[in-house]
């Protein structure tokens, strides 16, 4: 596990801290002919060796570095197929983590992976999944008849309310799991402060009631999921 953590650290430093924006732009423009692509890979190899601090592990560092090169190259040439540029980014990062995991536990990869899945807290995973999109859909159904009476704010970001709700429910679930119920009150208070000026300027009672009901339903679903998990 220590090797895996060190390799992940090396990846984070190499991909996010020691990779200037200039390198990223140059790689996207020149792809396989970009000199910074090769510098980037060599930097990763050096970071892995430095953090592992064991010359006998050079083959692992080399395999990960070469795999990093291939994954980055695939990303550079597939970027144009995605309208949402965050998709290839997350796919790229996911593949890097999988590669590092396979190399770190190559001696007992199957056994370690099997043990990892067997030890997963499936109840917690179910609760986490529930408070994301399923809860958002449930809220949409509950508030559907009310939303038709609210004027649409075209200045709002697309789906911003949905993502805010998902994030706040995840926070609520986390606080319940770790037993910090008082923080949930602070979270409600913080959200109320941010909403106060907006509601005050509009002076729209229907909107105020709609937001209040939506907030309570959102927190209620998260609390329900948390209570079912800890019970």
TrEMBL record:
Highest taxon above the source species: Bacteria
Parts of the chain that traverse the membrane: 36-53, 89-110, 122-143, 170-190, 210-230
Keywords: Membrane, Transmembrane, Transmembrane helix
Protein's name according to its UniProt entry: DUF3307 domain-containing protein
Origin species: Maribacter arcticus
Source taxonomy: Bacteria, Pseudomonadati, Bacteroidota, Flavobacteriia, Flavobacteriales
